[in-house]
């Protein structure tokens, strides 16, 4: 489930698959999904494509509109998480075909990238996102959002900041999971709920966060890890386990609370 994403953030257009899979196995992600040095970069639109199996979501109701360009807040770890969540929001804005929101997100991507030292890597992408939104070329916007994730990752590897790259992925995955949970809750079905059963991906993120350099394990990062563990406990371990409507609501609440904490302005 992802990329960001769903991460994550992280894809093809929803109608590009004749028959999307019922769930996304991390070990069988398509070419759009990035796994470099064992780091998964979520592609949010991959999950949104799968949602076609359970109907056409009203994305304009899922979209979280911003009041302006998102500015960096807190330390590098928070900014990285914010960047992932904003890119995931971009995919939701594309699904809702909200041009003005997409353009704000394009500017926000540039603003947050500057906050972690990778502005140059995404400057062209940011402008392309804005231009494509003006033209309502949604396929191109998706490509540029995917490209922004890739460019951020490559730039962070060059700067020896792979752990921040993982936090970008995680921020995208959390916002995507929140959105997915909201969609499933609005039109609950067992097939839809099964999309949230992603123990492998959760274990992956938990391992990456728990083994980060202690200086990266800020109170916010530790809060995110605790949320991951709570979601992991909710979904269980067995294959094909059915998630109840109540469990979906709980996952939505946990992911939503973490996304809110990520985007909270630091004092």
Considering DSSP H and I runs of 4 or more, what fraction of the residues is helical? Answer: 55-70%
Find the structural class using helix and strand composition.
Answer: mainly alpha
The order of strands across the largest sheet is 1-2
How much of the sequence lies in strands comes to under 5%
Listing every helix as H and every strand as E from the N terminus to the C terminus, the arrangement reads EEHHHHHHHHHHH
Tally of domains: 1
| Intertermini distance | 33 Å
- Cα Rg: 16 Å
User: How many strands, what sense, and barrel or not for the largest sheet?
Assistant: 2 strands, antiparallel
**Uncertain runs with pLDDT below 50, 5 residues or more?**
1-37
Strands, count:
2
Polypeptide structure, described:
The protein is mainly alpha-helical and 267 residues long. It has one domain (14-262). It contains 11 helices and 2 strands, in the order ββααααααααααα. Strands 1-2 form a two-stranded antiparallel sheet. The longest helix is centred in the middle third of the chain and has 25 residues, at 162-186. Mean pLDDT is 79; it is low at 1-37.
Q: Could you give a short description of this structure?
A:
This protein has 267 residues and is an all-alpha fold. 60% of the residues lie in helices and 2% in strands. The chain contains eleven helices and two strands, in the order E-E-H-H-H-H-H-H-H-H-H-H-H.
């Amino acid at each position: 489930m992802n990329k960001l994403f769903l991460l994550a953030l992280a894809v093809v257009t929803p109608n590009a698959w004749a028959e999307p899979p019922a769930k996304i196995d991390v070990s069988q992600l398509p070419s759009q999904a990035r796994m470099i040095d064992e780091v998964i970069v979520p592609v949010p639109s991959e999950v949104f494509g799968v949602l076609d199996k359970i109907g056409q979501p009203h994305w304009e109701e899922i979209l979280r509109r911003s009041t302006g360009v998102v500015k960096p807040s807190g330390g590098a770890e928070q900014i990285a998480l914010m960047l992932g969540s904003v890119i995931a929001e971009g995919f939701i804005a594309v699904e809702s075909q909200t041009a003005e929101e997409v353009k704000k997100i394009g500017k926000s991507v540039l603003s947050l990238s500057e906050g972690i030292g990778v502005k140059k890597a995404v400057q062209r992408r940011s402008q392309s996102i804005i231009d494509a939104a003006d033209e309502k070329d949604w396929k191109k916007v998706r490509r540029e959002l995917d490209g922004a994730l890739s460019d951020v990752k490559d730039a962070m590897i060059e700067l020896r900041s792979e752990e921040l790259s993982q936090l970008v992925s995680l921020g995208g995955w959390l916002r995507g999971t929140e959105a997915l949970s909201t969609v499933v809750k609005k039109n609950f079905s067992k097939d839809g709920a099964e999309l949230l059963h992603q123990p492998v991906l959760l274990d992956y993120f938990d391992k990456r966060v728990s083994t980060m350099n202690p200086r990266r394990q800020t109170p916010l990062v530790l809060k995110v890890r605790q949320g991951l563990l709570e979601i992991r406990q909710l979904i269980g371990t067995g294959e094909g386990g059915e998630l109840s409507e109540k469990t979906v609501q709980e996952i939505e609440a946990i992911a939503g609370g973490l996304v809110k904490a990520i985007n909270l302005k630091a004092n």
